Amino acid sequence: MRDPDAVWFRLPPGYVDLDLDALEPLRDGLLADWATLCADPDRAARAARESRALFGVLEQLRDRGVLHTAIGLHAGDGTREGGAPGREARDEARVSVFSLSEVETGAPSSAAAAARCALDLATAGLGDVWESGLVELPCGTPAALVTSLLPGRPDGVDGPVPRAFQARLAIARPRGSRVVVADLTTAHPAEAAAYTDILLAVGGTVRFTDPEGPAEPDTAPARSRLLDVLL
């Protein structure tokens, strides 16, 4: 029998699943490792502050409950001038946080659920919205993307910390009023386009039926015009 709560997806290389009940030792280990990952002490200190900010996001996720969480570590697109030979890519390490949650919208259909969730994401007042619009995913259900620049500094983070960039992808389940929301957050807004592409790539792997199981008839709902009006 098909599990109505199941969702399948794949993360790209560089992401490691997180146990939100064991954040403290992971945070302490990563903060200690920045001294060896970065040749420049100033860069190591800045990376540590950025990591603390992202771990603040993780603590908030733990408090509200999520389906899945992962942390990513990747090399940046640029290189730092003046660094020791062979050190440039390591000095440009980027940390990001991925989470998957679910929202009950109370909407009468999956198309209306996606519209309502997307509107809530775009008008939640959690930052400056950069982009909002419809996206088409292989799973065939209504979906919308919202990107924004988050304000301020998480509680408990000292020192100057760049505003975090967050991309959010709302994907309606094939039936009912629930919406799966995939979030990707990083303290590197300059890499916003790259992280948006990563999130859309993950969204492209989302399935609500077992990808290795027997195929089911196509029952994806028609796209709601309400989505076009709202976004």
Strand order of the largest sheet: 1-2-3-7-6-5-4
Low-confidence stretches: 79-91, 219-231
Q: Provide the β-strand percentage band.
A: 15-25%
- Series of secondary-structure elements, N-terminal to C-terminal: EHHEHEHEEEEHH
Categorize the overall geometry. globular
Helix/strand structural class: alpha+beta
Mean pLDDT comes to: 75
Describe the structure.
With 231 residues, this protein is an alpha+beta fold. It has six helices and seven strands. It has helices at residues 23-37, 41-64, 88-91, 110-122, 192-203, 225-230, and strands spanning 15-17, 68-75, 93-104, 128-134, 143-149, 165-172, 178-186. Strands 1-2-3-7-6-5-4 form a seven-stranded antiparallel sheet, sandwiched between helices. Strand 6 (165-172) and strand 7 (178-186) form a beta hairpin. Helix 1 (23-37) packs antiparallel against helix 2 (41-64). The longest helix is centred in the N-terminal third of the chain and has 24 residues, at 41-64. The two termini are 36 Å apart.
In short:
With 231 residues, the protein is α+β, with helices and mostly antiparallel strands.
Core attributes:
7-stranded antiparallel β-sheet, alpha+beta, disordered C terminus, 6 helices, 231 residues
